[in-house]
Design goal:
The complex is a heterodimer of chains A (109) and B (116). With 109 residues, chain A is mainly β. In chain A, 0% of the residues lie in helices and 46% in strands. In chain A, the strands form two sheets. In chain A, strands 1, 3, 4, 8, 9 and 10 form a six-stranded mixed beta sheet that branches. Chain A has a four-stranded antiparallel beta sheet with strand order 2-7-6-5, with no helix packed on it. The chains are: A mainly beta (109), B mainly beta (116).
Chain lengths: 109, 116
């Protein structure tokens, strides 16, 4: 079945690292893994994407398993503004991103 | 603004009426997508336009739904004879790259449709 699997919700305290997991066992060899996040009452926004190697940008890091069947989005120091729904998504060999239900991240002060 | 613009931001309609939702993508973006997000749910793909190619309509839930993209820019999503289950936020996104696989999607803030 072409879908990504994520925990429904996770919690973190402010300034602590957060590791958001995702399973995508049916991913094809050329599918990039993308992460988006959606703040309340807004459209999703891009966070990061990668293919095989781990990736870093100003927002987060993406760690991709060697077999590419799973990945982890890492927020190095969570802030209250990071509270959002985080979507792990890929194209599953199509031209469109297939989104799941995401992980709702709560950040506590 | 330089982002994806959607209108109306909110639409309340009666069951059985037709509605049109509009999307203005970022200038120069060749790919345009429509997604639907029901309350508390993830994003459901509806339709995808890429340049002059035939659109990918595989996600449209019924023949009451249609979309067009004029001049490779503005897109309109039309829902005919609306039903209560059509109530959702309709999100539009555009992308510069031909293949989304490597490109970034830019989303609008969505059009919230409520069917009474």
């Amino acid at each position: 079945d072409a879908k990504t699997t994520q925990p429904n919700s996770m919690e973190s305290n402010e300034e602590e690292p957060v590791h958001l997991p995702c399973n995508h066992s049916t991913i094809s060899g050329t599918d990039y893994i993308h992460w988006y996040r959606q703040l309340p009452s807004q459209g999703p926004e891009y966070v990061i994407h990668g293919l095989t190697s781990n990736v870093n940008n100003r927002m987060a890091s993406l760690a991709i398993a060697e077999d590419r069947k799973s990945s982890t989005l890492i927020l190095h120091r969570a802030t209250l503004r990071d509270a959002a729904v985080y979507y792990c998504t890929t194209t599953f060999n199509t031209d469109k991103l297939i989104f799941g239900t995401g992980t709702r991240l709560q950040v506590f002060p | 603004g330089a982002g994806v613009s959607q209108s109306p931001s909110n639409k309340v309609t009666e069951k059985g009426k037709d509605v049109e939702l509009r999307c203005d993508p970022i200038s120069g973006h060749t790919a345009l997508y429509w997604y639907r997000q029901s309350l508390g749910q993830g994003l459901e793909f509806l339709i995808y336009f890429q340049g002059n190619s035939a659109p990918d309509k595989s996600g449209l839930p019924s023949d009451r739904f249609s979309a067009e993209r004029t001049g490779g820019s503005v897109s309109t999503l039309t829902i005919q004879r609306t039903q209560q289950e059509d109530s959702a936020v309709y999100l539009c996104a555009s992308s510069l790259r031909w293949r989304t696989n490597t490109g970034e999607l830019f989303f609008g803030e969505g059009s919230r449709l409520t069917v009474l």
